[in-house]
Structure to design on (672 residues):
């Protein structure tokens, strides 16, 4: 091919001229779109669409210029015969002309590629950005006071700023669980922003001494790493709570957020607060941030009560008291704790109808009491205030799961994880959902990721151990439970270890574990029921089993007053009555549980155990077969002494064939 002849033909057909004009025109069009599209409210993808169309049109324009040319008579087909194919002279002027053309086209192409690359990088750093809203994470403020006991103040102040910003519907704010994970970790801001999926990070420090408070805060743009704003506040301690409002207003201003009237009212609020009550409130919240235990929750309750004694209209303190009381109920399963939580929640809501945490707490209360429609309504009200609230999404999922709507529950949990891909709470909730659905192998990665996010959270290791145990991976289960016990010995973990020993036939050792569980949670009926099971098969202590079952029945019926439609409570009461020799009561409660949850794995397995105890072999086998179809482990069926009357049947032998497939779930114990 004669390159000179080809270049001459390109020039003769006007291709050079068209390429230059097209490149320059496309560049100008892109600049205009970049400036005016955002002003006109067009979505960001509209500019990318213009870019793509212009790029696709370039080869089309070149081909058309080869075939046609514009003349005074109009557009006509190019006359190739008129092109001079003689010797092309590459004079200095001609070389400059050609060089400028190549440079222009290359520059425009580079600008296009650069724009696309920057968009991809921005997406990677700031994703997810919901509806184009600015995104920000508030890190725990560093304590510069020199006293560990003042650590709560910096954490509390930054949490209050986070909560205030989260009320602004025009912002995307990473949850406290996610952002506080990085406290004390040597990780640069850009990496934190990438992990949390935010474009901005607010960090700061606090120094408190001699009745004065100094707070330094800075807002950092993640991609470039430069400071958008920083300021230092020196205040008397009596005015410390005002700093959170000032910082929040500065952050919103620097992010150039166009606020709705409701959001503007939130930032312009006028707060009058007792400084000592505020300090007690921050200390109470500090206890709630740590891994839950009876001791820490009691301390939190005491601090919130002291705050309210100084400021009886402190809505946030009532919300904290509600959370603490609800935490106590979850551990103790004591109906009195439930009622105290309900009263505190109602007081908080009476004082502040826009308090999102209160709607979430009320939703959780209604969920635990079986009032699922009311619980859903509360969570939906919370999501109206903040559609991206992790607490509300997780609570909604838990309610839908209990209300036999697993598909919607999983959708809510998936939405929570998509909102924040680094939120340990969302991952733990998904893990618990999968565990309680019998999907233990799927739950393991979620527990592992939760443990990676929060290595000091015993719930993650307890759940991980439970999954491995239900999959008959006993070494891994023991290792995980040992880590959980090392972090925070609690009744659930002792109970799980006791169940492991029970199924291994080590009943006396199981008794010891269950006794420790009852000491830590004396109002939990399941611990007493498990203790009765262990005594029942301990040769020298069989007579102690029935008193344990009687106590379990009494406590379970107290909880039934909180939620009379809970199939787990009903089936366990049936099991305890059967084990204590109360045939008629056992069958009555068994019928109620099965009517409410005929396809629940735990209900069916415990039905098999209690029917076996009552020598109802045929019905017991039917329930056991259904439990296996739902995912119960045949290995644990072989090990459970409560199924002894069924073992001699051909149906049982066929069910426990080594080729059978199945998973497992702990007897009567939800992993929540």
């Amino acid at each position: 091919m004669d390159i000179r002849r080809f270049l001459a033909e390109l020039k003769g057909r006007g291709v050079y001229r068209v390429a230059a004009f097209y490149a320059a025109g496309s560049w100008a069009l892109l600049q205009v779109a970049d400036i005016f599209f955002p002003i006109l409210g067009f979505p960001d993808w509209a500019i990318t669409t213009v870019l793509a169309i212009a790029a696709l049109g370039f080869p089309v324009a070149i081909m058309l210029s080869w075939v046609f040319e514009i003349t005074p008579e109009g557009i006509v087909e190019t006359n190739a015969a008129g092109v001079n194919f003689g010797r092309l002279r590459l004079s200095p002027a001609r070389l400059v002309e050609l060089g400028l053309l190549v440079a222009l086209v290359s520059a425009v192409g580079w600008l296009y590629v650069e724009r696309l690359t920057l968009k991809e990088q921005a997406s990677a750093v700031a994703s997810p950005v919901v509806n184009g809203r600015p995104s920000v994470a508030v890190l725990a403020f560093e304590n510069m006071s020199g006293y560990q006991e003042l650590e709560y103040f910096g954490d509390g102040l930054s949490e209050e700023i986070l909560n205030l910003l989260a009320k602004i519907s025009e912002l995307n704010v990473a949850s406290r669980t996610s952002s506080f994970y990085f406290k004390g970790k040597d990780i640069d801001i850009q990496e934190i922003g990438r992990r949390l999926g935010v474009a901005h990070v607010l960090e700061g420090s606090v120094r408190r001494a001699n009745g004065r408070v100094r707070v330094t805060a800075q807002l950092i743009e993640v991609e470039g790493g430069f400071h958008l704003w920083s300021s230092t506040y020196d205040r008397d301690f009596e005015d410390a709570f005002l700093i959170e409002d000032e910082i929040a207003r500065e952050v919103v201003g620097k992010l150039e957020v166009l606020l709705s009237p409701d959001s503007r009212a939130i930032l312009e609020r006028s707060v009058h607060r007792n400084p000592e009550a505020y300090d007690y409130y921050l200390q109470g919240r500090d206890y709630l941030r740590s891994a839950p235990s009876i001791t820490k929750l009691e301390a939190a309750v005491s601090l919130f009560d002291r705050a309210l004694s100084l400021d009886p209209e402190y809505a946030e303190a009532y919300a904290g008291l509600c959370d603490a009381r609800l935490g106590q109920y979850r551990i103790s399963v004591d109906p009195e704790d439930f009622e105290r939580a309900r009263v505190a929640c109602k007081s908080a809501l009476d004082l502040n109808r826009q308090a999102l945490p209160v709607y979430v707490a009320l939703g959780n209360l209604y969920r635990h009491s079986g009032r699922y429609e009311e619980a859903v309504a509360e969570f939906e009200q919370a999501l109206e205030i903040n559609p991206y609230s992790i607490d509300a999404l997780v609570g909604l999922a838990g309610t839908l799961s209990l209300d036999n709507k697993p598909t919607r529950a999983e959708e809510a949990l998936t939405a929570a994880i998509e909102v924040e891909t680094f939120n340990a709470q969302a991952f733990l909730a998904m893990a618990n959902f999968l565990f309680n659905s019998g999907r233990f192998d799927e739950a393991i990665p979620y527990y592992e990721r939760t443990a990676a996010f929060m290595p000091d959270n015993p719930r993650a290791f307890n759940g991980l151990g439970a999954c491995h145990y239900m999959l008959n991976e006993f070494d891994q289960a023991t290792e995980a439970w040992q880590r959980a016990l090392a972090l925070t010995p609690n009744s659930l973990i002792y109970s799980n270890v006791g169940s492991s020993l029970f199924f291994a036939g080590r009943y006396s050792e199981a008794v010891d574990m269950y006794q420790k569980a009852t000491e830590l949670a004396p109002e939990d009926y399941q611990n007493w029921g498990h203790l009765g099971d262990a005594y029942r098969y301990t040769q020298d202590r069989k007579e102690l089993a029935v008193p344990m079952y009687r106590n379990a029945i009494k406590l379970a019926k107290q909880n039934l007053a909180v939620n009379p439609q809970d199939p787990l409570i009903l089936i366990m009461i049936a099991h305890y009555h059967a084990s204590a020799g109360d045939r008629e009561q056992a069958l009555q409660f068994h019928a109620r549980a099965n009517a409410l949850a005929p396809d629940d794995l735990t209900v069916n397995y415990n039905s098999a155990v209690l029917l076996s105890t009552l020598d109802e072999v045929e019905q017991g086998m039917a329930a056991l077969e259904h439990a296996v179809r739902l995912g119960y482990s045949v290995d644990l069926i072989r090990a459970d002494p409560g199924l002894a009357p069924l073992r001699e049947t051909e149906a049982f032998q066929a069910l426990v064939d080594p080729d059978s497939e199945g998973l497992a779930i702990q007897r009567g114990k939800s992993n929540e």
Q: What stands out?
A: Residues 92-126 form the longest helix (35 residues). The chain is about 65% helix and 5% strand.
